[in-house]
Amino acid sequence: MTSALAPSSADDPLAYRPVALVDLLDRVLATGVVISGDLTLAIADVDLVRISLRALVASVGALPPPEHAG
Amino acid sequence: MSSTVEVAADRPAPVAGAWLHGVVRDADPAALAVIAGMDGAPVRAVSAAGLVAVVSTAPLDEYGEQPLRRNLEDLAWLERAARAHHGVVEALARRGPVVPARLATVHTDDERVAGSLAARRAELVATLDRLTGRGEWGVKGYLGPGVATASAEPVGAGGVGTAYLRRRRAQLTAREEGQQAATAAADAVHAALCELAVAGRRHAPQDRRLSGASTPMVLNGAYLVDLVALSGFTDLVDALGARHPEIRLELTGPWPAYSFVAERPEPALTVREPW
Questions:
Q1: Three-class secondary structure of residue B17 per DSSP
Q2: Does any CB of chain A come closer than 8 Å to the CB of residue B258?
Q3: Closest CA to B104 of A66, A21, A39, A23
């Protein structure tokens, strides 16, 4: 997971390359990754579904800290 | 707050739905056959109204409303789904313009996919035209490493009353000023990039727990750029980075134009249309 969250780089501006999950979620979830609160998804044909991001945040919180806590 | 369904959907449940990846003008079936979709199986085309929706077959025991609600809260599932979806959208974007679908756009059957292509045809065609020859780039700005973000030095335990308070206040002031300067720099960078881009918008800054960055994010911009203007754009990012040492800029991309297909653009969206 740590590597998945590593920043992407852009040495070759036209090359598609592995992307950081957080950058990807900003885009595919359209609203950006908020750390608290809920996210409303418009799932086609199933109307509006409100997703709680608490579990997502809890999962992220369980990751090893990216820097020394302090 | 617990998850709630805002409007109950009450209709017979088919076994498999269609997870929409994106809409393109046309697609070569042979090319789609080598693109792996949600569960590794090849994606397929649903054609209607002169457009092609590229979909994955989505068993509703995993991708139906209830399972989705549960699965989207599971970070490992969410990452798998996001990367699988992105893999398809990116493969399509390499071949030409694509209107990417938001994550978890699941139709209960192909007929509904076809129906939405027909219903939204004019808008989809206009978006595909607008995206042709353009790509999305991300520019993130972080508070510069030299800017005070917290107590730069440990407050001595021996600090006496007013001396301690004065020192503490000075630290807080420096921190505030650093953040204000970084915020102003972020605004200036975004404005300058919007001048060169076809369109620009700002996503919410990423939380450091998610980004793993060592300093707070002050800019999370996305820019739709003409491919012919790309080198000018990347040069401008470099120049702006040099002009604003109070923030550190990071360029990502190219991205499929996820940030520029919103049905209802957010207020933050700034668009400079070429026509």
A1: strand
A2: yes
A3: A39
Chain B residue nearest residue A24, CA to CA: B82
- Residue with more model confidence, B241 or B116: B241
| pLDDT for res B269 | 33
Report d(CA A29, CA A26) in Å as an integer. Answer: 6
The residue in chain B having the minimum alpha-carbon distance to the alpha carbon of residue A69 is B214
Q: Which residue of B has its CA nearest to A35?
A: B207
Residue closest to B41 by CA, chosen among B72, B11, B62: B62
The CA distance from B268 to the nearest CA of chain A, in Å, is 12
Q: Which among B106, B208, B212 has CB closest to A46?
A: B106
**pLDDT at residue B154, rounded to an integer:** 54
Higher pLDDT, B250 or B175: B250
User: Mutate which of A25, A35, A45 to test chain B, going by most B C-beta atoms within 10 A?
Assistant: A45
Does A28 sit within 8 Å of B86, measured CB to CB? yes
- Which residue in B268, B191, B220 sits closest to A20, CA to CA? B220
Q: With both helix axes pointing from N to C terminus, report the angle between B110-119 and B121-131 in degrees, rounded to the nearest 10.
A: 80
Higher pLDDT, residue A34 or B40: B40
Decide: B167 and B197 in contact? Cβ < 8 Å. no
Give the C-alpha distances (Å, rounded to integers) separating B100 from B30, B115, B232.
Answer: 20, 17, 26
What is the distance between the alpha carbons of residues B132 and B125, in angstroms, rounded to a whole number?
11
Report angle CA B146, B150, B153 to the nearest 5 degrees. 85
Q: Which of B77, B86, B98, B210 should be substituted to probe chain A, the one whose Cβ sees the most A Cβ atoms within 10 Å? A: B210
